[in-house]
Amino acid sequence: MPIPFLASVLMDGWPSWLPGPWTLTKAGSALGAIAVTKIYASGATCTAERNMHGRVVMITGGTSGIGAATVYELAKRGAQIILLTHHEHNDAFLVDFIDDMRERTNNQLIYAEQVDLRSLHSVRKFATKWVDNAPPRRLDTIVLCGSTLTPPGKSRTETPDGVESTWQVNFLSNFHLLGILSPAIRAQPFDRDVRIIIPTCSAYIRSPSLDKALDKKDWSPGKAYARSKMAMMVFGKAYQKHLDAYKRPDELPMNARVFLVDPGYSRTPGMRRWLTRGTVWGLIVYLFLYVFSWLFLKSARMGAQSILWAVMEGSLVRDKGGKVVKECMVVDCARKDVDDEAIAKKLWESSDKLIEEKEKDAAAKRARAKKREMEKEEDKKERERVEEIEALVNTIKKGKQKDKEKPKSGKKAKNGEKTA
Ligand SMILES: NC(=O)c1ccc[n+]([C@@H]2O[C@H](COP(=O)([O-])OP(=O)(O)OC[C@H]3O[C@@H](n4cnc5c(N)ncnc54)[C@H](OP(=O)(O)O)[C@@H]3O)[C@@H](O)[C@H]2O)c1
C-alpha cells in the first residue's frame, strides 16, 4: 500500500484529495507533541511483579481514585483485600463496589471493615479488634490512600471529634491506626516482607512549619492539605525508627518497612473536587476543559503505579525503609526537616495528647448520649405503663357501666312481656 502510493505521488504528483505536505507535517508534529506530552505526563509504569496470592493487604481510601486502582491491580494478582471504609456494610454503593471488583478481578477475597477516619473512636474500635486477635492475624501490606481536602474558597470544617477535618482524616487517624496496629505489625514472622505505604503529595514541600498549630486565621485549604501531608512524611519516617527500635524475640532485624509514595497529580474524585472548587460552575468549566486534565494529569491507574511498585518491587527487601518513592523509584526528600527528630518527637507527643483528649471528650459525649437515650427509653416505658393502666381502668369502668345498664334493660324487657 505505501509503495504504490509513493509511486503514484512520484508519477502523477501530490494527490488533490490529500492536504498539502506542509499541512500534514504541521498536523503530524502537533499529534506527536500531544502524544509525547501525554506519555510524559502519565509517568512511569510499574514493571515490578510479585505473586500476591495469600498476602493480606489492608487499605484505606480503596473505594475511589488511586486507592481503587491499587485495589484492582493487587486483587487481580490474588491478594486478600481488606477495605477500610467509612461506608456501612450494607451500603448499596459498597456492596456494588465489592461485587464488581470481585467479578472484574476474579478474586472473592475482597472484604470491608467500617473505619471512619473522621472518628478516632471508629479507628480505635477496628484496630483494637484486629490487634486483640490471637494468634496475630497475617498482615503483609497497609496502604493509606484515604484522604480529604477542602476545595479552595471553602471554609474550615471540623470532624465530630472537634479536630480540623484535613488534619484528622489525612494525618491524625492514620497516626492512631498505625499506633494501635504496631504490635500486630511487629508480631509478623521474620520471613514476611511487611510494607506500609503512605501516599504523599509534592504539596508537602510548601507546607508551613509543623512547629506550631495552624492558626484559624491563618488557615487555608492549601496550607491545611500540605501540612497534613508533611506531618505524614515526618510521622512515616519516625514510625520506621519506632519499628526498627523493636527487639524481636527471634533477634532478627525488623521486616516491616515504611515507604512514602508520591503518586503524582492524577484525575481522581479528590483532584476533581480541588479543580472545580466544589462548585457546579467549576464542574462545568472542568468538563469543558477536560482535554487539558486528560493531557496533563495521570489517570488513577497511572497514579497507582508508584504505589504498586513500592508494594511489589523485590529490591526494596534490602532497603531500610522510610524512603520516598516517586515515578517507580526511590528519590530524595525535598525538605530536610522531614528527618528532623525534634519535630518528629514533638509531633508524636502532641498527637498522642490530642488523641487522648479527644477520645476522652468523645467517650464522655457518648456516655451522656447513652444516658439520655436510656432516660428517654425509661420515660417511654413509664408512659406505656401508665397508658396500659389507664386503658385497663377504662375497660373496667366501661364493663361496670355496661353491668349497670344491663339490669335496666332486663327490667324493660320484663315490663314489655307483661304489657304484651
Ligand atoms: N489525586 C492526586 O492528584 C494526588 C496527588 C498526590 C497525592 N495524592 C494522594 O493519594 C491518595 C489518594 O488520592 P485520591 O486523589 O485517589 O483520593 P480521593 O479520590 O479523594 O479518594 C479519597 C478516598 O478516601 C476515602 N475517605 C475520605 N474520607 C474518609 C473517611 N472519613 N473515612 C474513610 N475513608 C475516607 C474516600 O472514600 P469515599 O469516596 O467513599 O468517600 C476515598 O476512597 C491521597 O493520600 C492523596 O493525598 C493524590
Automatic annotation (TrEMBL):
Q: Cross-referenced InterPro entries, in alphabetical order? A: NAD(P)-bd_dom_sf, SDR_fam
Annotated region Disordered: the residues are 366-385, 396-420
MF GO annotations? oxidoreductase activity
Q: Which domain of life is it from?
A: Eukaryota
Q: Which Pfam families match?
A: adh_short
Q: What family does the entry list?
A: Belongs to the short-chain dehydrogenases/reductases (SDR) family.
Q: What is this protein called?
A: NAD(P)-binding protein
Q: Which residues form the signal peptide?
A: none
- Keyword set for this entry? Membrane, Oxidoreductase, Transmembrane, Transmembrane helix
Q: Coiled-coil regions in this chain?
A: none
The residue ranges flagged as biased composition, category Basic and acidic residues, are 372-385, 402-420
TM annotation in the entry: 278-297
Q: Name the lineage.
A: Eukaryota, Fungi, Dikarya, Ascomycota, Pezizomycotina
